[in-house]
Amino acid sequence: MSTIPPILPPGVPRAFHLLAKPTGATCNLDCAYCFFLSKEMLYPGSRFRMADELLEEYIRQLIEGHRVPEVAVAWQGGEPTLMGIDFFERSIAYVEKYRRPGMQVMYSIQTNGTLIDDAWAEFFKRHDFLVGISIDGPQALHDAYRVDKGGQPTFAKVMRGLQYLQAHGVEYNTLTTLHHANADHPAEVYRFLRDECGSRFIQFIPIIERVPATALDRADTGVVAAEAGQVSATHWSSWRDRPLYRQEGEFVTDRSLRPEQYGDFLNGVFDEWVRRDVGQIYVQMFDVALANWAGEPPGLCVHSKTCGLALAIEHNGDLYACDHFVEPDYRLGNILETPMIELVASPQQQKFGQDKFDTLPRFCRECDVRFACHGGCPKDRFLTTPDGEPGLNYLCAGFKRFFHHIDEPMRIMAGLLHRKRAPAEIMRWAQEQDRLQAAAFASAGRNDPCPCGSGKKFKLCHGRYRDGM
Ligand code: SF4
Ligand code: SF4
Predict the structure, then answer these.
(1) Residue of 393, 402, 403 best suited for mutating to test ligand 2, as the one with most atoms within 8 Å of CB
(2) Which of 107, 243, 277, 446 could staple 459 via S-S, CB 3.0–4.6 A?
(3) How far is CA 238 from CA 49, 147, 221, 255, 347, in A?
(4) 24-67 residue pLDDT tens
């Protein structure tokens, strides 16, 4: 048993976030783009089940390592529900054993939803779990990549699980990965999450699957150069044979989200949200952006100046710098050998977090939207800048497209916040913009510049469908 050192090392944070992976990367599904699955190769021969002794040790160290009155116990996978309800009942018993008086413990779990039934939903409700459901949109978009081990679609099972949660009044949110198949459909995806899933907190995660050039001789299809045109796709599954657990490669699979697609997707969702849903529906990326525009902590590592306070613990107690860096170079140690808090505060982890800022290329440092972007996640920084410096984020073009698009409404919302008024007042502004634009379209001449600002003639832009033009 590792004990908390009586004198804490310098730089120990008062709180941190840890994602626990009790089944490691093991999952009952076989989503085509899943980067976790290949990580099973990190632990050859393992049963991928967190042992009971480790579970108790993990909970104890997590609670003792926090010097704030709230602790988050967050489960993720692979698929954590494969552990069964008894495992989670025991985790709660350990929390009760170690929590300090007055300490509030918040439970959350990220799941594909397919195993949720009446018993799971009852359990989640009884212990106030926040359940994150992974769903990629309406049936055709979701089933494009989210299939089971037999290659069968999973949409119906996910929706069934969601219905159990709703029937029991469980608090839930949705996590949608963005990829080649769904990213051209922002309104369809957003309306589905809002109206069909009843999601009030929506998270989008870009799928970027890197492929090293050295491996191209093995699979000449299904990959695209990160900056070049698309190569036709076929089988990617053979890549599962490779140890893909390292972040490397200057190519991406053609399942991956394109940078511009990302920007256009977020813009499409934003345009609907800002007209009718502000204050009702929380889209993580918009909340984060508003915080950055308002000069508040954004609450999401990806668009923070530094990171390093969101770590991952594997089924055997190995602690990693981040859930996206569960790879050998980023293993900090094992909590059975070294106290968790020492690993969290280790120089290696502090450097990991600080590097997010220190390694920004000049192109980013001089960027007009750096205050909102902060260069994105380091795992995606594999492009070179126009002046040849490495370390530019693959999604840069999408970030710029999005942050420029929302600049004016974000300034207005940040101003409302500073005057202690509700950001939802922005919806009146958006509706007034629509009214003004409709009036401008109505009075524009065929050869006038289009009032939308595209730079095209009206007859070649928004005027194409007016008066039979
Ligand atoms: S590496 Fe990326 S996902 Fe991990 S903590 Fe840093 S910004 Fe967040
Ligand atoms: S938008 Fe691009 S250039 Fe600007 S900070 Fe983000 S990644 Fe860097």
Answers:
(1) 393
(2) 446
(3) 26, 17, 11, 15, 38
(4) 888 888 887 776 555 567 787 777 899 999 999 999 999 999 98
